[in-house]
Structures
1.
Amino acid sequence: MKENGIENKGNRFSMWKLHLSVATVTLIPAAVGINYVAKAFAEGLKLPLWLGSLGTYLASMLAGPTAGAISGFINNIIYGLTLSPVSTVYSITSIAIGIVVGVLFNRGWFTNAKRVFVSAILIALTSAIISTPLNVIFWGGQTGIPWGDALFAGMIGNHINIWIASFTDEFVLDILDKVVVAYIAFFIYRQLPQRMINYFKDNQ
Amino acid sequence: MEIRDNSIQRIAQMHWYNFVDPVTKLLLALFLTMLSFDFTNLYFEAGLVLFSLMLLLLSRLSSATINAVSFCLFLIATMVLIQGLFYSGNIHPLFSVMRITFYREGFLYALTMSARILIIIFAIGFFMSTTTVSENAKYLESIGMPYKLVYLLMSVCYILPQIQQNMKKIQFAERARGINPQKTVTQKVRSILPILIPLIIKTFDQSINRSITLQLRGFDSPSRTLATPKYRYFQTKLSHYLLTLVTILLIGWKLWQIISKFL
């Protein structure tokens, strides 16, 4: 399938390969590094975004959902061990993001700007659904982002159920972040040299 | 007691925590976390916080742990504030400031949650400050973890500084070209791509080079030599089985507590 410069060579049978090739083994740490640096970069610019899943998106697009899921998982483990130990439990969310991006990309949902938007909403929904119970268990429903938590506090103050308040808090933050990250990943993927894309696809 | 590390010909001083293997340290962190989730008594939680803090203080208190604590303190403060004011189970007022009432139930709930977070930070901090990347890699491989997975986990720690260095170089080059610091959010978002695109292409290029090098050096070869762990650990199997068993029991008990509410 080829549309607007993005070609998806994968198929539904090959994308779930669990065998890690040497190319994938070296791609995953790079993706984790990109996640880490992109997050630090967003924090440095004081953006209302995390960008911490950019590497996971790219790993899923280049080497499939398994590589994306492992990138997301290791990213949270490393982040949890070095900066915020509670982040470790959010590795479940990162695994889900990696899988959803990989599947959507493989099915051609990253081929044009409109489809990327739909994909981003699905990814944000997945992320919010999985993160909400974790937020309730570990942070009493909060996300730790001041303006999202202000919304959460307002909803709790109006006696709205904690699960709905926490989901809204998470989804409002996720939708913005995941849409921006999806477009950045889409744009960056189009800029990657074809030999690079082929190398990771051929060596899966 | 001392140990001679032949690879670098130096004598390393042995501490008590060097006799505890990395997996036991991680299992201990998981066990303490599950204990804090199963027993919600505030005094018990305080005892667990003290125990994990002592564990950390008796080993090595690293700057990374202090950073993690300071990172979470703001969140803990907002949690105490929000739950104290709006927690659904709030009944008994604790104090009032300018007609705003702060409740006892929400305050205690937030304190319990904060204690759990501190236990996780201290227990993981103990693991982080008492183990090294190479020690973890050698040990994990020696207990049977696939070497590809070990490489994945450990290479991140070495690749990350390299990527950060590349980013600094690219940012410096962008500034040298006269790109000024961005002020509005739109300007900031637009400034992301000129830095991230070269950074990501360079990072993936280095990955391809690393992959070719690994293939040439026989990374996939079945006759690889296993690395020998640096230290001799105390009762590793016993502590693994014991901690795993107790943690599974605690998880089961917590699940039963949740399920029994719906029965």
2.
Amino acid sequence: MTGNGNISRDPLDLARSQMDFARMADDAPSVKEVLFKAQTIIPVAPAKPLWQKAAPVAGGVLAAGLLFVPVLPESASLDRVNVNFEQSLSAADAQAVQFAIRNDLPSEILMGSSFSGGSDAPGLLSLSFSAAGEPRLLARVGESVEAHAAQHGPLMGQRINEARSGSRDSIVNRALSLLSSEEDEISYIDPSNHTARELLDNPELLRLGLERVTSQLGYSVATVSWLDREALPADEADYRVIELDCWPRPLRVEIDAVDLASFEHADLRTACNAWLTQMNLGPAPHGLASRPGELLPVMVEVRDPDGRLDRALTDRLQALIVQPDPDAGQYTDTSTWKVQSVVESALAELMGERTCYPSYERVPDPAYNREVNCFWVYVKMSNSFEKKSPVLDQRTSEMEQKINF
Amino acid sequence: MVLQRNQDNVAVRNEQFTVHYEEIHLQAWRLALYLCGRREDAEDLLAETVAGAIRNFDKLRDVSKFKGWFLKSMRNLHIDHIRRAKRQMDVADFGGDVMVWERLGRYPQIEGPQRSTETRQIFRAIDRLPESLRTPLVLNALEGLDIREIGDVMGLGQSAVKVRIHRARKKLMELLGEDFEVD
């Protein structure tokens, strides 16, 4: 208690004491008014006996149902479309077609591919797409495939509808269910922020795949876990532990064995790495670079040294970060997904030598039950043109470590 | 007979809902005001939340959590509205006068003439907090919700709420300078 007589210097106490609760209560609509208004939005109780309105409603529903019969989905289930190319393609063409189609795909759809030829020999390309209960998306897939592959001859498409319970499964769970079945092996994971998060939450997909790989060499996997650091080379003290450079995070795999020799470790590591690369989960840069829309949104706010919002710089920085054209230059380092590096590249471009201090915050989205919805970046500009102090650099790197998953 | 029973059930449900709702009516109204910032919008939001809550009241298993459940529905509905509005905004308008995320939560009339300069300064500082920190702080310090209730409203664990309130207080003090102190 200091300062203004009896008023506490705790600003929150002060704010609370100044809030006019009585007046707000007087201004409030009555409970009756609110309930009445709610009833006007959506009738909350039947205004007349059900049987009186049941007939017209049922008639309406039936008529509407009949109207939409031809376009109703065959089942709310996991839909798959297989597309087999009738003409053989060279490996380079097949890769180009795959890449073009994959870039156009909505993130809800998984794409698997197989190519019967070799790196030099031409072969037949077949693609498989899957999505849960999304017949319209699959129609879009058809359009996309036809648009990109028209020059490579006719296609032969086959649509399979599989009844699966829980059609609202996540992408990874769907991939997992495909991987679990013997006949249809998923061979490619399309990277996106969403997929990354699902994989991080549920490494079972990787465990199952790696289990399959190691079992071919006569071993089984004991544990699979994510690493918070870079993957290290073989540990001579314990060859059972294999650390793999994997997307979206390095992976630690422990083999279920009493002991392993170095050559066994090397064989297993090579096989696991090959499988991860095949699944597009290896350390190489991923397709996200051309899909900026799938990155977590980054919202920026640039303020001048006096704390005023600089609208022009904010707009320019935002435009640099959300780069709609993949060929126009990317600031999105998608292989590491460091928002910091994205922002700092853009800031370096925008500000030159001028000093500015970005701070980062992850904004959660409880409505969608996601841990992170977007990154909020607050950039404070300085008057000076000096380089950053070592203390600030250290803080930034600590912040990077905290934020980067 | 069955129809009569259904109607009776609906009437009982509405009555139960009204009993619970009456207890939190004023708090819900203040949260609606805080979220919307305008009386008219707050009335719409409140009515819409009530309509949805009545429909889903049967799904609420533990009525002791009614307050958190109701306030959470209101906040989610508001976020949906914001998101819809954001989608309708042109890209060029995005950096305009109203940033979408800035609109998540304001008490109306905080700039009114009845406020002292000091109070205006405090409310302005609260306004400058990011939404993820501001909302738990406001709900706790100004609205008097306990940590569990705030967790229910925001879909967060209790420890996460505590951390956010702590950070919000710290940030608030940074914004206000040394003239104030927070417990």
